[in-house]
Here is the input.
Amino acid sequence: MANGYFDSVHRSVMRDECIEILGALRGGVYVDATLGLGGHSEGILLSSPDAIVFGIDQDEQALALATDRLSEFGKRFTAVKSNFSDLASVLKKLGVGGLDGVLADLGVSSLQLDSETRGFSFRFDAPLDMRMDAASGGETAGDLLNRLGQEELADIIYRYGDERASRKIARWIIEKRDAGTPVSTTFELAELVKRAVKTSSKEKTHPATRTFQALRIAVNSELDILTQFIEESVDLLKRDGVLAIMTFHSIEDRIVKHAFQMFAGKCQCPPRIPECRCGAAKKVEILTKKPILPTGDEQENNPRSRSAKLRACRKLG
Here is the structure.
């Protein structure tokens, strides 16, 4: 399949910046922990004939497309169906030792956002699914809306979406459920949130964006597994190996920033605690004092890159 097809569907955010900070030009063994359509993996493999990439993703459609895209690299590329939270066990089964680099792009892939059936986007009317692994059998976003109480639902929308109108949104969702007309599609939820949220005419994003983000994070337990993934990645790196993580909203970025600081030896405990209990230990050097942002040209050509932030650290001896 021609690469032009992939470029038209998905543009890998800050691809060159990721390759540079990973040091992929020197070759080595890398993990693309969020393979998607394989754009970043392709960049790593093209950067050096000595580069080997293990790509992990839980989306079967993405795995199939990425495997086809990267077939020209033969045994230098291996695709694995799994969640990045299982990184250590995946590599153990593969018999893979120390890594030269780990990359995670925490954004939702264009393949998922552009799907008309999986419920990630309010651009299409579809059931509220939002599962990264549609075959997992886990709860969908619609299931959450039908199961959770008002306070718990409001808490999820506020905590994971920074949505100030979370209580009103949750109350309206529960009222519709109690009336026998539960919210079950993307259009229904987007319209309800649009009526509940006050926005200014200058607002560029749809008022339902934060609520959809919150439900997606909750359905896939994205934040619960992030700190564990960072810890496992650091442990699996060789000396001078690099961990690079790209986030797309402030909650994820804070988690990555604080985890990096903890592994760089900076205590994350509250000031009044007399002794450190967070486990801070100097294992890495932070390479990005401030996150790397997309260039102006990239933001203009790829609007989905605008909120991206790239942070990286290097493992110490």
Summary: Residues 1-8 have pLDDT under 50 and may be disordered. The longest helix spans residues 222-236. The longest strand covers residues 237-247. The two ends are 42 Å apart (CA to CA).
